[in-house]
Amino acid sequence: MRRRRMVGVVPSHTVPHTGSMSVTTDRRERLIGIVAPVLIMVAAMWLLELLDVLLRGRLDYWGIQSRTAAGLTGVPLAPFLHSGFSHLLANTVPFVVLGLLVAWRTERRMWPVTVTIGVLGGLGVWLLGPANVVTIGASGMVFGFFAYLVTSVFFTRHWLDLVIAVVVVVLYGGLVWGVLPTGVGPGVSWLAHLTGAAAGVVAAVALAPRAAPTPGG
């Protein structure tokens, strides 16, 4: 009996489903796009704090020094510098929570939103802050993310952004008191909170996705 050979025929059940693979890849890439920016920034904060310990706190002097030329370097650096691990830990949790929410709802605009908050908020401290004081910490970014999430719903008009805004207000509504001089403790910059929040509003106005126009009658 002669055996028959089948050449070049692939059973149907072994054919890869390119559609499902594409969807899986897209989801993975989107997840990475959401998580990566936040993790990169948090990792930088912790690595710099470890280095600061080795340098005996010398990195902290690279924060924002108001109305000095050297102090301008602190505008991009200050959010990554902290006065100790307790300070860093206190900022890390809300930074991660709010940062991930911003990254989720902005996706490709996460970096522009972050840069807008960091630069405008930092310049506000540089212009208005007290002399002979070095301002450091990511709390201005935290307030900026908070303000962005609450403000952006007025532009996106999406039910999910409304739910997020309500949850954020419930969980972190107490942050609002931190923009007042009487709402913070000694050594805490209420001005950095205020300028960060104001920058978050500006970022929402400039960068939040707009709702699709409703067809007229």
Between the first and last Cα atoms, what is the distance in angstroms? 77 Å
The spatial strand order of the largest sheet comes to: 1-2
Q: Major beta sheet, specifics?
A: 2 strands, antiparallel
> What is the arithmetic mean of pLDDT?
89
The helix-strand sequence is HEHHHEHHH
Rg calculated over all Cα atoms = 23 Å
Spatial shape: globular
Number of helices: 7
The count of β-strands is 2
Which spans of ≥5 residues are poorly predicted at pLDDT below 50?
5-12
* Estimated share of beta-strand residues: under 5%
Structural class: mainly alpha
Relative helix content? 55-70%
CATH class of the domain at 63-207: Mainly Alpha
CATH architecture of the domain at 63-207: Up-down Bundle
Kindly identify the CATH topology of the domain at 63-207.
Rhomboid-like fold
